[in-house]
Amino acid sequence: MKTEPTTASQIDPGIVEEASHLLARYWAAPEDPELLAKCNVWRAAHPQHELVWQRLQTFGQKLDDIPTTIARHALLESPSTSRRATLKLFTTAAVITGAGYVLHRPHFWQQQFATYRTALGETRQIRLEDGTRVWMNTATSLDVEFTNLRRVILYSGEIFVETGKDPQARPFILVTAQGDVRPIGTQFNLRALPDKIAVGVYDGSVELLTATTKQRLRLDAGQQAQFSSSHISTPDNAGATPAWTTGFLAAERMTLSEFAQELSRYRRGKIQCTSEVAAMQLTGVFSIKDTDRALMNLTKALPIELEYRTRYWVLIKARQGKREK
């Protein structure tokens, strides 16, 4: 019998903290046989221990991709610890500190241990057991729990959902930190923003339910709204189906500063605009799979130029002089 993956909501945060402590020591002294034996005993003690260990190892390996210019003052070489180990210990210390904000930041560890995740710049599609299709945008994390209910728990990012017809007719609920979304035979988009959720409906309808005030609102096809844990905004026109599901960013009279912010979701580092060009507007369709190409296409549409200050820092500024033909 196949065992379903343990979801983040089912993992004890205490296990995450124990694993973090052990990994911090292991990264500092990987050749210590006594410590290695202790780690192995802990990993074998419970299936969740091994799951958490593997996920934290993966999280640590991703730190290798961080540019050395970022937080360099915190990552200086020390006599007793390698630069890479210092980086990992620095990060792990933030996770495991008793009062450390990372561990206690809402949904941080759930994001790291969610069953389904996408990396920065990655999009993917998953199909659930009831036939529901979920498109996941960049930097998205979610869990799926099918019992007497069909629950999708969104921790971060953005998803487009096309609900399936469940043979058992179980209710479908999409859970967020701000409240629940209950679709009725529908296609809808959900994006987690700071302290609120943006919802757009493209077929069928959904019911929104805020977490604290229990305010309800039904959105029908063609409508969109935003909701926090206590308030739902007035619905307006949802527009076209989000272009990111097909690998593009659609801009319609979007300011350059807004465009830079949106494109930054799909690449490492920062895209900035000078104040001189920030309010320029553009309309067009740009690739989110090749963000350098998208930036280059900007120079063909607007009187701007790009300055790559580093590989991870792009400045958009007014074009100087005449453009060569």
Automatic annotation (TrEMBL):
Residue stretches making up the FecR protein domain: 115-207
Source taxonomy: Bacteria, Pseudomonadati, Pseudomonadota, Gammaproteobacteria, Cellvibrionales
Residue ranges annotated for the FecR N-terminal domain, each copy included: 17-58
GO function term, MF aspect, one: sigma factor antagonist activity
Database matches in PANTHER family: PERIPLASMIC SIGNAL SENSOR AND SIGMA FACTOR ACTIVATOR FECR-RELATED (PTHR30273), PROTEIN FECR (PTHR30273:SF2)
Pfam families linked to this entry: DUF4880, FecR
Stated name of the protein: Iron dicitrate transport regulator FecR
InterPro entries: FecR, FecR_N, Ferrdict_sens_TM
Coiled-coil residue spans: none
